[in-house]
Design goal:
The chain has 255 residues and is α+β, with helices and mostly antiparallel strands. It folds into 2 domains: 18-75 and 203-243, Immunoglobulin-like (Sandwich), CATH 2.60.40; 86-197, no CATH class. Helices cover 38% and strands 22% of the residues. The protein has 7 helices and 8 strands, in the order ααββββαααααββββ. The strands form 2 sheets. The protein has a 4-stranded antiparallel sheet with strand order 1-2-6-4, with no helix packed on it. A 4-stranded antiparallel sheet has the order 5-3-7-8, with no helix packed on it. The protein starts with a helix and ends in a 12-residue tail after the last strand. Residues 1-26, 45-87, 193-233 are annotated as: Disordered. Residues 71-82 have a biased composition (Acidic residues).
């Protein structure tokens, strides 16, 4: 997709401003449980928007993001769709990056990551698409003397660009088509891992919640209570309080 096409699309959609796409009323924030030993509390964020959203927290100190389970019943369920360990997520992301780099013969490799923070998903996504497109065009310059792939920013754009290349060049460009489609799949998997991988040091105050998805926030307790507010683009959109004396659920995990 060329720059003019993307600019026109951005103008039509009101640009890339996340707040223009996300409805704060579709984000619910509730106190889920407290630790029976009075050490921590867990809150749940439900994002019913069709877009992922990055939120910041204020209030009681956050211990970690992405803890699963709110009570004994939840913890004993067979649902395995929750968050992954930070170090495991880093390892899996780097494995995907390594697979991507095996296709790059004429351009620099995508850099592996050391940790996951609020910007990791965006940074890796941009680098993967930049290098994959550059590799495709380096090869097409050798064979055809021209670039055949336009810049792409998202998995949907990558797949659309692959379709355009296939329609114009057919089987002769199959490697380019496969490269873009595989890059789209890889980026989606990386985004899933970075969204669920959390912060390794427990000090981050940013939380990304996927579209139609939920995440948890684990905090300490101060005088048997914890209060946390959520902020979108600097504006407070929700607040919740966990009070040991008023909660019905005890958390079944430890931070």
């Amino acid at each position: 997709m060329d720059d003019d096409g993307r600019d026109a699309e951005d103008d039509e959609n009101g640009g890339d401003d996340e707040s223009a796409e996300v409805d704060p009323d579709e984000i619910e924030f509730v106190a889920a449980c407290v630790d029976e030993e009075r050490e921590f509390a867990t809150f749940r964020v439900d994002n019913d928007n069709d877009e992922s959203v990055t939120l910041t927290t204020e209030g009681t100190s956050v211990i970690d993001f992405g803890r699963n389970g709110t009570d004994e019943t939840d913890a004993s369920s067979d649902d395995d769709s929750g968050d992954v360990d930070h170090d495991e997520a880093v390892e899996q992301v780097n494995s995907i990056i390594e697979d991507t780099n095996e296709r790059l013969e004429n351009v620099d490799d995508v850099e592996p990551i050391d940790e996951i923070d609020a910007n990791t998903g965006d940074d890796v996504q941009e680098e993967v698409f930049t290098q994959v497109v550059a590799e495709i065009n380096a090869q097409s310059q050798e064979l055809l003397g021209t670039d055949i792939a336009g810049a792409v920013d998202t998995p949907d754009e990558a797949r659309a660009e692959a379709d355009e290349i296939e329609a114009e060049y057919g089987a002769a460009a199959q490697e380019a088509v496969d490269g873009l489609n595989d890059a789209a799949d890889n980026v989606e998997e990386i985004r899933e891992l970075t969204d669920r991988g959390g912060s390794g040091d427990g000090s981050a105050d940013e939380l990304t919640v996927g579209a139609d998805d939920s995440e948890t926030v684990t905090t300490g307790l101060e005088d048997d209570t914890a209060t946390v507010s959520l902020h979108l683009d600097g504006d407070e959109i929700a607040e919740a309080t966990a009070d040991y004396d008023e909660m019905d659920n005890y958390c079944s995990h430890s931070p």
